[in-house]
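Quick one, tokens below:
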């Protein structure tokens, strides 16, 4: 293993949690392919620089708490990064059903308060906005109907 590439990829992984897909792309951009790429990946995993479980848990926490994403969008984004179903399920288990429902209710209430309540398109606007962010349509519909009527 080339020491300059090794140092670069270690720093890349230390800066924030990464998944295998991101690290492979970075190694490719540094000119590493084939067996050499596998050797770097094994090294990073052995030295605990790289962990898909740790990555998926951090990703779920960040996207749920900071970006207000629902489970559908989080799942789709993790699958796009080739994260296993087991890691996705384990990571999503961090979010309690109560926290999930409370966050959805808060988001709905904020959207209602920041818009013209008499607008006939308000329900559609809220539903579109929240489903785009990955919230389940049935939960959104039920809550919007409760809050607006």
């Amino acid at each position: 293993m080339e020491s300059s590439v090794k140092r670069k990829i270690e720093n890349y992984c230390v800066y924030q949690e990464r998944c295998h897909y991101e690290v492979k792309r970075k190694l490719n951009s540094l000119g590493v392919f084939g067996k050499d790429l596998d050797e770097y990946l094994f090294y990073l995993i052995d030295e605990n620089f790289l962990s898909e479980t740790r990555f998926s848990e951090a990703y779920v926490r960040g996207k749920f708490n900071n970006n207000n994403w629902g489970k559908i969008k989080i799942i789709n984004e993790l699958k796009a990064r080739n994260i296993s179903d087991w890691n996705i399920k384990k990571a999503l288990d961090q979010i309690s059903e109560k926290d999930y429902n409370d966050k959805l209710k808060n988001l709905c209430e904020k959207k209602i308060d920041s818009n013209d309540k008499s607008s006939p398109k308000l329900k559609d606007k809220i539903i579109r906005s929240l489903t785009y962010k990955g919230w389940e349509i049935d939960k959104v519909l039920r809550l919007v109907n409760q809050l607006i009527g």
